[in-house]
Write a structure and sequence with these properties.
Layout lengths: L1 H8 L2 E3 L8 H10 L5 E7 L7 E5 L5 E3 L4 E7 L20 H12 L1 H8 L15 H6 L11 H9 L1 H6 L4 H12 L4 E4 L35 E9 L5 H14 L5 E7 L7 E2 L7 E2 L5 E2 L1 E2 L12
Parallel strand pairs: 2-5, 7-8
Antiparallel strand pairs: 1-4, 3-5, 6-7, 9-11, 10-12
Length: 303
């Protein structure tokens, strides 16, 4: 019952005329019409190689979308490469050698097509989708399976350039720009949190109790950097944020630490990136600060 309903819901399309077209263009025309299942068979002919000689269903016929279409294309066959004695037919016009040659030609037709179009496998922009990961491994370049196809092709195209500058500020910025389409800002020797420090030689301004007190482990600024993406966090999907983190972890030096942040609108809300105590209270990274109003003094009572 479900199969019958799906058949009724299928769109009816008209079969286009592809006779006389090259086989590759004929398949594009059929796919655009909604007929992606194309079976290619060979027929001996002296027409130009791969010219469509016949099609079934015929042109103008109404069929369901996704129906199978068979096209016969011109091939002179392997028989023309054999001596003339093998090209002779018997009394009824049959030639067993020709039939065997056409059988092998159908079997190895896809291999021959791949050899003729082998250059396509080495160009990331036109290579088959399933070949991209293998092409990336040639340059020891790692791509995630979940990355969009367009970003994969752009990154693999620049894989050699990225490999030369891997682990540098320029390399990280180029990688993120190719993946996101936005050029980030990388600030080296910086860290967004000052920390809570009360020591003998430290100045009082380094730790203002009640304003910017925070307990953090000590960090070496020489091994820290901040990555700022020029886009709002609200406009980025969680998957993209995870992929940006993966790219930074993959491209940064192993001994360094990073902090990722996004562009924020100014004067929207006051944010504190630490835990503070006192009249100003905000817990967690990016917590909104709420300042409590001072209570009016209690009226004095007369004795």
């Amino acid at each position: 019952m479900a199969a019958e309903l799906s058949t009724l819901n299928r769109r009816v399309v008209r079969v286009p005329d592809v006779v006389g077209r090259p086989s590759n263009k004929a398949q594009i025309v059929l796919e655009d019409a909604g007929l992606a299942k194309v079976v290619v068979l060979f027929r001996e002919s002296y027409e130009d190689r791969d010219t469509v000689l016949e099609q079934r269903p015929a042109r103008g016929q109404m069929v369901y979308e996704g129906s199978e279409v068979t096209i016969w294309i011109a091939r002179r066959g392997y028989l023309e490469s054999l001596p003339a004695i093998y090209r002779r037919s018997d009394a009824v016009g049959r030639n067993m050698v020709r039939d065997i040659c056409f059988l092998f030609e159908h079997m190895f037709g896809s291999v021959e097509r791949n050899l003729d179009e082998g250059w396509r496998f080495y160009d990331p922009h036109v290579a088959p989708k399933e070949f991209l990961d293998w092409l990336a491994h040639w340059t020891a370049f790692t791509v995630d399976l979940e990355w969009p196809e367009e970003q994969k092709r752009s990154l693999i195209k620049r894989a050699v350039d990225l490999y030369r500058i891997r682990g540098t500020k320029r390399g990280l910025m180029l990688f993120l720009k190719l993946f996101t389409g936005h050029e980030p800002e990388v600030l080296e020797n910086s860290w967004p949190f000052k920390g809570f420090r009360v020591e003998g030689e430290e100045s009082v301004e380094g730790a203002r109790i009640g304003l910017d007190s925070v307990v953090l482990p000590p960090v070496d600024l020489a091994h820290c950097f901040i990555v700022t993406m020029p886009i709002r966090y609200e406009t980025v999907t969680p998957g993209t944020v995870i992929r940006i983190h993966q790219i930074i972890q993959m491209e940064k030096p192993a001994h360094t630490h990073y902090y990722l942040r996004f562009a924020e609108e100014k004067d929207e809300v006051e944010l504190r990136e630490f835990f503070s105590i006192g009249l100003r209270s905000g817990i967690g990274i990016g917590a909104e600060v709420v300042e409590t109003e001072e209570e009016p003094p209690a009226p004095e009572t007369k004795k």
